Amino acid sequence: MSELDSYYKETMANISRLAEANESFTEAMFFEDRMKILIEDGHSTEHEEEEDKKKKSKKNDEIHGGYKYAYLRQTGLRVDGYEFLIDRSTLILYVCHFVQDEVINTLTQTEITQFLKNTRRFFEKAFDKKYLDALEETSDGFEIASFIHNHHKKFDQIGVRIITNCLLSKRIKDTILGEDDKFKEKPTTLDIWDIQRFFDNEMTGGDSESIEIDFKSEFNSGLPALPVSLESSDYKSFLCVMPGNYLAKLYSKFGSRLLEANVRSFLQFKGIVNRGMRNTLRDEPHMFFAYNNGITATAEDFKVNDNNEITYLKNLQIVNGGQTTAALCITNSRNSEVSLDNVFVQVKLSIVDTKTSEEIVPNIAKYANTQNKISNSDFFSNHPFHRKMENKSRKISVPIVSGQIRSSKWFYERSRGSYENEKKKGSKADEKAFLLEYPALQKMDKLSLAKTAVIFDGGPHHAVKGQQAMFKHFASNIQTRWEKNSFEFDDEFFKEIISKQIMFRDGRILVMKEVTGNSIQPVLAYSLFMLNVLSTNPLSSGIDFKKIWKNQCLDDLLSSEFDRTVIFVQDYFENYISGTEKTILSVSKNAGFFEGFKAKVESQSMKGFLSDDYRKSLVTRDFFA
Fold first, then answer.
1. Are 34 and 528 in contact (CB under 8 A)?
2. Which end of the chain is flanked by fewer CB atoms within 10 Å, N or C?
C-alpha cells in the first residue's frame, strides 16, 4: 500500500468517526474537516458569527469576509459554500466532490466541466430576483444567492474551488479556464484540492505550496536591490524599492499567504484603507514612498542578475507591512482613477534558509512590528512555549497502566503533519515501534491544547468560537503568564494539561450519549468548565489531575459526576433557547450568556450539586503551603 493510499484510508476512517459522532453526513464532515486545513494554512479565512448587537447595528450594505458553508443542489445548479475576499474583491464558490469508496477514485475532466457549468448557472441565476424570491429564506441556498444578488458589483473576479477526496486525472495538464468559462464576463479561476494535494500539504506541515516569484515573467523586469554587507552566514539582506503595482499584483495573486505565517490569522484585512494612505494614493502618489514606512520581508532563496536585480524569490513572506500591501491591492481594484504607476515602496528583504527560518523569521516579525498595535500573542505560533511542550512530550513517559507491559508518551504536534512525518520516516519496524511509543490516541496538537486550556482557564465561550479567535485568546493568556514566569511551564504543568486533554477526550464520548450535532462542542466545554469550578472550593484545590495522569482515563466516580453535569448543562441551554430561533452553539459564544451561566454555577443554590462521594475524592487544599 502506498503512502497516499494509507493517508486516504486514515482520512476516510477519521471522517466516518466524525460523521457518526456528529450525526452528520460524511460528505459534510469531509468538507468541514478539509476547510479547517485550508484556513489554518492561509488558503482560506474564517468567518466568525457576529453577536446580535453587532448584527442590529450593521449597515445593510456592509460586507464581511470569511468562508461560509452554503449547500444547494438543484437540477443543473450546484454550490457547497462561498467566501468573499474583501482585500482582493474576489468571490470564491466552493464545490465539494466526495466519493464513498474504499479505494481512491479519479476526478475526470468531464466531471470538472460539469461542476463548473452547474456552479456558473447558479451564479447567473442569483442575479434573477424571481429565482431569489422562490428560494426558502431559511435555506443556505437563499443566503448565498442573496449575497451574490446584493453584492455582485463588488466582485472583480470569481474563483471556483473544488474540494475532493478523489485523485485528479493525470490526463488533465492544467486548470486554466478559457473565455467561455467566465462567470458573467468576470475573470474566473479554478483551484482544485484533490487527495494528493491534501496529502502533500499534510506531509510538509502546510508548506507544500511554495510561493515562487519570477520577476521577469511576472513584470518583465528584475527588482533593483542593494546588497547589505553582513558578517553572518545565517542570512543575507537587501534594500529594495518595489513599484506599488508589483506589490498589488503579488497580493492579488497570493493573498494572505504572503503574510508571515505566525501573524497571518491576526492580520485579516477588513477592507478599510487608512484615510491618510488612501488620500496619498489618490492625490499625491509620488509622495507615497516618503510618507510610508515601507515593508519588511523574508524569503528562503533568491537569484540576482549582473545588474544587481533580483529576478527570483522563493517563499516571500511580508512580516511587517501587510496592511500596506493589502491597501495597495484593494485601492487599485476599487478605484479606477487611482494609478499605482508612480507609487513605490521601500523593502527591507532578508534571505533566511529553511534550516534557521523557524527561529529567525518570527523574531524578525516580532521586532519589525514593535511600533504597531500588534500584541506579542500574535506571534505565538512559534513561541518557545510550544517548543517547551514538544520537548517535554518527547521525554515524559506516562505511567504503565493495568494490562500494559511498557510505558508510552504523549506526542505534542507543534507543527501539523509532524506526527505522520515522524511515524513514516523509517522502516515498517520503525513505524511499529513509533506507534508503541506514541499511540494515535496520545497525540495532541496546538489547537487541542489551546481549546482545553481556554476551557479550564474559565473561557468556554471563547473555546467554542472559531479556531483563530480561540487560539488568539489562548495565546494572549499564555503570553502574559510566560512573561511573568516561564518556569511555571514545568513537568507538572505538562502532566496537568495532558490530564485535562484526557478529560476533554473522554468527556466528549460521555456528552455524545446525551446530545448530538452542533450541540456537542458547547455542552462539552460548559460541562468541563462547570465541573472544574464546582470542584474548587475553600476546602478543595480542585479535580485530582494527578489521578487522571496516573490512570490515563476518568475513573467511574468522576465519569458519573461528569454525566450529571452534562445533563444540567444541556437542560440549562435548552431552557434558555426555548421559544426562540437561537441554537445552543450560537448562544454559547455570547459573553452575556456565559456570565449568566457562571453566576448560576457560583450561586449558593449550586453548593450541594456535587455528590458526597465525589466531594471526598477531591484534592484537599494545603493551608500551610
1. no
2. C
Do the Cβ atoms of 157 and 253 come closer than 8 Å? no
Q: Compute the distance between CA of residue 29 and CA of residue 18 in angstroms, rounded to an integer.
A: 7
Question: What are the phi and psi torsion angles at 297 (to 5°)?
Answer: -140, 160
**pLDDT per residue over 204-227, tens digit each?**
766 656 789 999 999 999 999 999
| Angle at alpha carbon of residue 168, lines to 166 and 173, rounded to 5° | 175
Q: What is the mean pLDDT of residues 341-363?
A: 79
DSSP structural state of residue 486: G
pTM of the model: 0.67
Cell 474559565 sits on residue? 458
Contact predicate 213/310, CB 8 Å: no
The alpha carbons of the chain give a radius of gyration, in whole angstroms, of 26
> Which of 169, 176, 167, 171 is closest to 199 using CA atoms?
167
Supply the DSSP symbol for 398.
Answer: P
- Looking only at the bridges linking them, the beta strands covering 90-97 and 157-164 are parallel
335: confidence class by pLDDT, cuts 50, 70, 90: low
- Residue 12 three-state SS: helix
Q: Which pLDDT score, from 0 to 100, does residue 283 have?
A: 87
Q: Does 107 score more than 90 pLDDT?
A: yes
